[in-house]
Amino acid sequence: MRRYAPLMTSAVLLLAAAALWADGPKPGTQPQERILKKRIAVLPTETTIEQWAWDFGQTSFTGGLTETMTTALVNTGRFTVVERAELEAALNEMKLTQQGITTQQTGARKGMALGAEYLVKGVLTEFEYAKSGGGAGISIGGVSVGGSKAKAVVGLDIRVFHSSTTEILASEHVQGKASRGGAAVGISAGNVDFGAAGFDKTPLGQAVRDAVDKWVKFTVDKLGSQPWEGRIVKADSDDKIYVNAGSLSNIEVGDRFRVLREGEKLVDPATGLELGAERTPVGEVRITEVQEKFSIARASQGNGFKRNDVLRETR
Q1: Domains defined along the chain, listed by start
Q2: How far is CA 79 from the centre of its chain?
């Protein structure tokens, strides 16, 4: 593992930079205009690194990355993110499908099981943490303060999928780097706690945050160009059409949506993967009442709408 020269930056400048990061705007956060929230799921982060550097604990570290990314996406105000317990239950059921315990017809599919339009996944492909210099320092809860110098690198391969077809919509490699000298703050091997006080001030914590910020920006940029979609839950009449999104998705009274009807699902005979389905325009609806998790609409064009018809925002 390479060693790095001390970073010649004063403690005052480091503290000022940390304060600016804490108080300033984060990438892709808090959109000024009203944006309909897309429903996404953050799949568990994996790693291709076979030998885990410094025995930091592969499961806890990749799990921390997943939780940090999930929180960051929620904080953008642009997404409804599938809850962890809901995600784990759906993934367990999908494992049964893949093992042949349930059939493809009765087992959970990603889009249906998660109720998410998109899936986001990160793979940890780079990890480096180098320490040098003197000063044994002290360690509290895995975070150490001493006179050493440290540099950290965290690299992730990011992919965004469409949930129903598992088509890769976009992919990118992001990298976070950070270093600190002087009164350095380090990490004790085998004990990495993303929520520990002081973790964000360590080079490793800053490298993680840098990588996650780039991950969030990439996800926001790529999904921002995709139109919001919902589904009709049921249609009692043309004046009372229930929609599977409400105020939690930023739906408001007066919003209008095109209605599309899907034809037969197209499945690749070679791979068994769902390719999608043809969609035929059948009309338009206008939202008349909004609840937290659902809305009620009435037909403004067309009629005879059915359960599972697709709603797409008009642009």
Answers
A1: 11-224 (3.40.50.10610), 229-313 (2.40.10.410)
A2: 9
Q: What tokens appear for 160 in the block?
A: 């965004």
Token pair 């976009």 is found at 170
Check if the beta carbon of residue 180 is closer than 8 Å to that of residue 149. Answer: yes
**CB-based contacts of 73, cutoff 8 Å, min separation 6:** 40, 42, 79, 81, 120, 216, 219
Distances (CA, A) of 184 to 4, 129, 142, 144, 179: 14, 13, 14, 8, 9
Query: Cα–chain-centroid distance for residue 29?
Result: 13
Q: Name the residue with tokens 């249906």.
A: 112
Antiparallel, parallel or unpaired: β 138-140 and 118-132: unpaired
* Better-scored residue on pLDDT, 25 or 13: 25
The neighbour count for residue 131, using CB atoms within 10 Å, is 19
Q: What's the pLDDT tens digit per position in 47-77?
A: 888 765 545 556 678 888 999 999 999 999 9
Q: Decide: helix, strand or coil at residue 2.
A: coil
Alpha helices in the chain (DSSP H): 11-23, 58-75, 84-98, 110-114, 203-224
Angle at 131 between CA 126 and CA 137, to 5 degrees: 135
pLDDT tens-digit map of 254-286: 999 999 998 888 887 887 767 778 899 999 999
Give pTM, 2 decimals: 0.70
Whether the CB-CB separation of 173 and 158 falls below 8 Å is answered with yes
Buried-exposed string 9-37: b where 16+ CB fall within 10 A, e elsewhere: eeeeebeeeeeeeeeeebbbbeeeeebbb
pLDDT over threshold 70, residue 170: yes
Q: Which of 57, 59, 56, 82 is nearest to 69 (CA)?
A: 82
For residue 79, what are the β-bridge partners?
A: 38
Instruction: Decide if 168 contacts 161 (C-beta within 8 A).
Output: yes
Q: How far apart are CA 272 and CA 165, in angstroms?
A: 11
Give pLDDT, residue 5: 33
Terminal-residue alpha carbon distance, the chain = 52
Give the 3-state secondary structure of residue 174. strand
